[in-house]
Design a protein that fits this description.
161 residues, mainly alpha, Globin-like, 5 helices, flat
Length: 161
């Protein structure tokens, strides 16, 4: 969805991927440069927020535009899930976007906000995130299968009884 962590797995070093490991320890040097960079980011936090916001809202806008063409919406969401595999943005984070979106638009819609409308938006986000998870898993499987040597792969043509 163009999420905030989308670019984290990309490295500027010859396009190689840097794998982020949970529980990694931060060294003092890393802590210092992060703090220094945060001072600059914080001064322009609105710009950072706008970039993230525009990416998310762009996807939501495309999703709403495709509600009458569910095949196109499904393809969009599955492809986004595939791209999130490459960003190292796992599915466990996808549902947060819907929750945050709903909490942001509810006050804007004021008296137009109903339980029925809330359920409709929740359903849309559950539907889309499910498709994104599917795309992520397909891409993960494709990469895992590619990592297996041809001799180790199961020959699917000869599996019939």
């Amino acid at each position: 969805m163009g999420c905030a962590i989308s670019g984290l797995a990309q490295s500027a070093d010859l396009g190689e991927k840097k794998v982020l490991k949970e529980g990694s320890r931060l060294g003092e040097d890393s802590i210092e440069i992060i703090k220094e960079s945060w001072k600059v980011i914080k001064d322009d936090i609105a710009k950072v927020g706008i970039i993230v916001f525009v990416r998310v809202m762009s996807f939501i806008e495309k999703s709403v535009a495709r509600l009458d063409q569910l095949e196109r919406l499904e393809a969009l969401a599955v492809n986004l899930g595939r791209s999130h595999y490459h960003y190292n943005a796992p599915p466990k984070y996808y549902s947060y976007v819907g929750v945050e979106f709903i909490s942001a638009v509810q006050p804007i819609l004021k008296e137009r906000w109903t339980t029925e409308l809330e359920e409709a938006w929740k359903t849309l986000f559950q539907y889309v995130t499910g498709l994104m998870k599917q795309g992520y898993e397909e891409e993960s499987e494709r990469h895992n299968q590619a990592a297996v040597s041809p001799k180790e792969r199961v020959d699917k043509r000869n599996t019939a009884l």
